[in-house]
From TrEMBL:
Its cofactor is FAD. Catalytic subunit of the phagocyte NADPH oxidase complex that mediates the transfer of electrons from cytosolic NADPH to O2 to produce the superoxide anion (O2(-)). In the activated complex, electrons are first transferred from NADPH to flavin adenine dinucleotide (FAD) and subsequently transferred via two heme molecules to molecular oxygen, producing superoxide through an outer-sphere reaction. This is NADPH oxidase 2. Keywords: Cell membrane, Electron transport, FAD, Flavoprotein, Glycoprotein, Heme, Ion channel, Ion transport, Iron, Isopeptide bond, Membrane, Metal-binding, NADP, Oxidoreductase, Phosphoprotein, Transmembrane, Transmembrane helix, Transport, Ubl conjugation, Voltage-gated channel. Coiled coil: none annotated. It is found in: Cell membrane.
Length: 302
């Protein structure tokens, strides 16, 4: 038995040593941005740090807890000179990080007063394969939208600097959430991309749909009263917010009709139930003919 145990144990110990060494490297917080609804953005730098789109890291703040490591999706693009995470304040640890960064104070905080941070990672996810397809469907549910902040930023950087060599030609983005207020920072990102793409005369490169799954009667009344306005009253985007859940069968059939004979990547970050639905639709809408349209499903669950 020991012959079968020694090898895996040796590899495991090597992996733990590498992770310990990486977590001891110096991390500098360059900027702390406070977003609405108690969400903070930490922009950091670390020597030798290299990332790909959609990856995540483990973060430890000794000032809050000397033992706790928490996973966060990277929301920056590889093309940026820093890496960032967005943290929503929903528990004891995140509350402690919020206070340690001085976000509970009104006055400006000096950089040297910011807490020490340890970072382990980055670690890969399915989203890294986005650039392997000409057409992709990105589906984010709730907090699952965070990996696609990195993807959309990186796509835009690549498009601006070398659009001719970019294989990805069309993005269909779906965002399902009960309440957009907690993710106003992401709506701001979409607004920026929308404006920049119009300047480049390529507004059709990104098609996005925002579905509000949790809404009350007052919101519905407000929506009806302002429906004719140029921009959406909730997100400020030209694309109007939709209410309820998408009809996935219709969405898949429409996209298949728009891109015959293509391999279409379907990327989800969301709950298991939605993953089952999208997987079934990917299979049922893929053609048996190798020259026909094929949907390739990729997921990460939370």
């Amino acid at each position: 038995t020991w012959k079968w145990v020694v090898g895996p144990m040796f590899l495991y110990l090597c992996e733990r040593l590498v992770r310990f060494w990486r977590s001891q490297q110096k991390v500098v917080i360059t900027k702390v941005v406070i977003h609405p609804f108690k969400t903070i953005e930490l922009q950091m730098m670390k020597k030798g740090f290299k990332m790909e789109v959609g990856q995540y890291i483990f973060v430890k703040c000794p000032a809050v807890s000397k033992l706790e490591w928490h996973p966060f999706t990277l929301t920056s693009a590889p093309e940026e000179d820093y890496f960032s995470i967005h943290v929503r304040i929903v528990g004891d640890w995140t509350e402690g990080l919020f206070n340690a960064c001085g976000c509970d104070k009104q006055e400006f905080q000096e950089a040297w007063k910011l807490p020490k941070i340890a970072v382990d990672g980055p670690f890969g996810t399915a989203s890294e394969d986005v650039f392997s397809y000409e057409t992709v469907m990105l589906v984010g549910a709730g907090i699952g939208v965070t990996p696609f902040a990195s993807v959309l930023k990186s796509v835009w950087y690549k498009y601006c600097h070398d659009a001719t060599n970019l294989k990805l030609k069309k993005i269909y983005f779906y965002w399902l959430c009960r309440d957009t207020h907690a993710f106003e920072w992401f709506a701001d990102l979409l607004q920026s991309l929308e404006a920049q793409m119009q300047e480049k005369n390529n507004a059709g490169f990104l098609s996005y749909n925002i579905y509000l799954t949790g809404w009350d009667e007052s919101q519905a009344t407000h929506f009806v009263m302002h429906h004719e306005e140029e921009k959406d009253v909730i997100t400020g985007l030209k694309q109007k917010t939709l209410y309820g859940r998408p009809n996935w069968e219709n969405e898949f059939k429409t996209i298949a009709g728009n891109h015959p004979g293509s391999r279409i990547g379907v990327f989800l970050c969301g709950p298991e139930g939605l993953a089952d639905t999208l997987n079934k639709q990917s299979i049922s809408n893929s053609e048996a003919d190798p020259r026909g349209v094929h949907f390739i499903f990729n997921k990460e669950n939370f």
